[in-house]
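Researcher: We plan to redesign the surface later, but first we want a full-length starting point. Tokens attached.
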């Protein structure tokens, strides 16, 4: 069928081996969903982005090693970086057509600003079953696509230990974000994917919910967030009505060709 250009990018990072690594596969033709899923499984990264140009826009889809998802922040950032530096060097804006609508990404200096839908979470009742599954008694719990678990402070977020067998019981949500007000940033978080049994290094899409949640609590529209994984990452969030603008930087790690 012919080889395809493939890249790995550390997203929400300004140096290699930090932030969240994503695969970016640049397509010159449509691929069957099954083949894209197999490529993502072979790559075995938390996300592989597939981008294909259609006119002035790009079609963008995101696959974990086991399933396709509807929104991914770090792989969008990685895809924008590849389009603007490798596919069309010097391009300053990319409009991605996705399952979550058209997502504009604008290059600003060394970074990129992504316009994501505002997915403000709603309050969830704190039941004994929920506390048992989480393994901790939170201050409050909210939910949209993901479960947002508010803990008492940054230290509690840093010390949280997930029990994935228990978290798998929380079938109404894709992921679990534990969060608290930060010490030197507005808020901090960690994000867990029960189905994949892993902690995601930096999760841009969860900030579509975390940013409006903390924006209301802190009465701010401009927020600095930090995800406290081992690799870590910083996200700049701006609330504008139905949109959450999420900004970050990215670093290219690998250029290659897939023999597909």
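Model: Full-length starting sequence:
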């Amino acid at each position: 069928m012919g080889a395809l250009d493939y890249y790995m990018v550390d997203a929400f990072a300004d140096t290699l081996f930090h932030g969240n690594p994503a695969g970016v596969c640049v397509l010159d033709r449509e691929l069957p969903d099954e083949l894209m899923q197999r490529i993502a499984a072979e790559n075995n990264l938390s996300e592989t982005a597939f981008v294909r140009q259609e006119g002035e826009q790009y079609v963008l889809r995101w696959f974990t090693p086991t399933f396709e998802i509807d929104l991914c922040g770090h792989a969008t950032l990685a895809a924008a970086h590849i389009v603007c530096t490798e596919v069309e060097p010097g391009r300053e804006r990319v409009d991605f057509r996705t399952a979550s609508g058209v997502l504009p990404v604008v290059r600003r200096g060394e970074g990129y600003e992504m316009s994501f839908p505002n997915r403000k979470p709603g309050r969830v009742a704190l039941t004994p079953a929920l506390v048992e599954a989480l393994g901790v008694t939170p201050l409050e719990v909210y939910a949209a696509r993901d479960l947002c678990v508010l803990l008492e402070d940054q230290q509690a977020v840093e010390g949280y230990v997930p029990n994935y067998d228990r978290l798998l019981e929380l079938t109404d949500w894709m992921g679990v974000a534990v969060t608290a007000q930060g010490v030197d940033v507005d808020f901090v978080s960690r994000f867990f994917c029960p189905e994949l049994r892993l902690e995601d290094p930096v999760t841009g899409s969860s900030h579509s919910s975390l940013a409006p949640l903390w924006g209301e609590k802190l009465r701010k529209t401009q927020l600095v967030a930090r995800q406290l994984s081992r690799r870590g990452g910083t996200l700049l969030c701006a609330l504008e009505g139905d949109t959450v603008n999420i900004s970050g930087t990215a670093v290219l790690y690998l250029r290659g060709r897939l023999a597909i």
